[in-house]
Amino acid sequence: MDEKIKATRSLLQLVRLADNLEDLALNERLLNSLSRELRENLTKNTELATNIVQIFFFFSTFSNFHDIIATHKIGFSCLSIVEHEIKQYAALKDAYDRKRRHYKAKKITKEEMIAVKKKFEEDEVAKDTLLY
What we know:
With 132 residues, the protein is mainly alpha-helical. It is 83% helix and 0% strand.
């Protein structure tokens, strides 16, 4: 997986220059691979999915590449990612709220609650860093 993340980071550097987009758009194998990776790994690796979405975002800034976005169903994949992240956040928040109720009922110690709160906040920051 690390190689895929490195590769998508390198591609991100390339797509940031508009002059490269035309050549990359002609590489159907690359675009097919990226869209397949996005569909298959959108819930498994947030960093990889974020990199691929950003790559397609650069294509979307020019109207002559909009057919690439539509052909590879990037909109659907993006909505699937958002839906997954919302569900994941809700589950994380529910777990935190359960622990908080246990703390109020004196079923866990203050130190345990502090550790749970710190973990919850770290997870929030990590998600925000990747998504924004």
